[in-house]
Design goal:
mainly alpha
């Protein structure tokens, strides 16, 4: 089941990372965050493995059969990609945390110093 979830996650990532090829860099669409993360990690062979597996599973379901097990090569690539994405996610989280810390400290430095609030003078207290 875990391998199936990894494959589903890989499928979702591949769907998000399908940029349109453009001849001129100016015509290329801006990369989304998912595309930037997956660029260089996902190979054409990974896409073929994934879609072959999905196709075979779909045909098995149509015929009333159990879907085939995920190929070892696809499962292995899904695990490798999962580890790589986990590492990138950890680095991104640490960078975000550092930026938030920096901004919080800057906000504290730039905040005006509050004036002390004195209690109201009572009539019996001489000024």
């Amino acid at each position: 089941m875990r391998a199936f979830l990894a494959i589903v996650a890989l499928c979702a990532g591949l769907a998000a990372a399908a940029p349109v090829a453009a001849e001129d860099a100016d015509d290329a669409p801006a990369l989304t965050g998912a595309e930037q993360i997956l660029r260089g990690l996902v190979r054409e062979r990974d896409v073929s493995l994934l879609f072959d597996f999905v196709r075979e599973s779909l045909i098995a379901g149509i015929q009333g059969r159990e879907p085939p097990p995920a190929p070892d090569e696809l499962t292995g690539r899904a695990e490798v990609l999962g580890r790589a994405l986990k590492a990138q996610g950890a680095l991104a989280a640490l960078a975000l945390l550092a930026a938030l810390e920096q901004r919080a400290k800057q906000a504290l430095r730039e905040a005006p110093t509050p004036r002390p609030v004195l209690p109201p003078a009572s009539p019996s207290t001489p000024l």
